[in-house]
Amino acid sequence: MGSDANRLRKKWQDYSGKNALKAENNVFDVFNVLFEGTEYKIIKRPKDFTKIYLDVNLNDKELSEIYNPEEPILIHGIAPDLAITNTETGKTIYVEVKRQDGWVEGGKRKDGRGNAHERSNKYFTPGLLRIMREKGKISPEHYPFWVIFQGNITRDPLRVREITLWYDGHDAHYFFWRNTTDPHPLIEHFLTKIKPILD
C-alpha cells in the first residue's frame, strides 16, 4: 500500500507543481487528474442503482393499498455523485458530495438549518448497504460509500458533531473538505483511508 500511495502522491505533486490549480474545488477534477494512467477511475453519476426500487417486491395486500399507475415506472432508484473504481480489484466505492450552509462566525444558529447532510444518511439503510456492497465488492467491515462535505457545514459546531457521531468508528467514510482551494487533504484522505478499501 505504501509504495502505491506514494506513487499517487508524487503524481499529484508533479501535476500541481507544473499547473495552476484552477478547478481544485471540484472533486471529480482532482481525482480525474490523480488517477490518469493508473488502475483507478472516477465516474460521474454512475447508473448502477437507477432502477433498484423497481425490483422491490410488495405483497398483494400492500399493492392493493397503494396507487398503481397504468404506465409502468421505468426509473426509480438512486444516483450517487461519483464512483471510484480500482480496475485491478474490481472494487468500487460510491461518493456523495454535499455542500451545505452552516452556522459560522458572524452568522446565526439557524444558518445551519439545511438537511443535505441528513439526506445522505439513506446510504446507511440496510437495503442500500447490501446492494451497494454487492455491486462494489466492498467487504462488510466497510461502508460502500464516502461522503465529502463542503461549505460552511464543515465548520458548523452542531453539524460537525452530528456527522462525527453518525460515523462513529467509521471516519474513513466521511471527509470535511474545508478549504476547497487545497486538494492535498482530500487526496491524503483518499490515499490513507479509501484506497486500502479498494485494494
Describe the structure.
- With 199 residues, the protein is an alpha/beta fold.
- The protein has one domain (2-198): ECO RI Endonuclease, Chain A.
- The protein is built from 7 helices and 5 strands.
- Strands 1-2-3-4-5 form a 5-stranded mixed beta sheet, with helices on both faces.
- Helix 6 links the parallel strand 4 (145-150) and strand 5.
- The longest helix has 17 residues, at 2-18.
- The protein is globular, with a radius of gyration of 19 Å.
The CATH C-level class name: Alpha Beta
Question: What is the string of SSEs from the N terminus onward?
Answer: HHEHEEHHEHEH
Which strand order do you get reading across the main beta sheet?
1-2-3-4-5
Overall SS class: alpha/beta
- Strand fraction band? 5-15%
Biggest beta sheet attributes: 5 strands, mixed
> Mean pLDDT score, rounded?
90
At CATH level 2, the architecture is 3-Layer(aba) Sandwich
Terminal Cα span: 8 Å
CATH topology: ECO RI Endonuclease, Chain A
Helix content: 25-40%
User: What is the domain tally?
Assistant: 1
Low-confidence stretches: 16-24
For CATH, the homologous superfamily is named as Eco RI Endonuclease, subunit A
Radius of gyration: 19 Å
List keywords for this structure.
199 residues; five-stranded mixed sheet; 14% strand
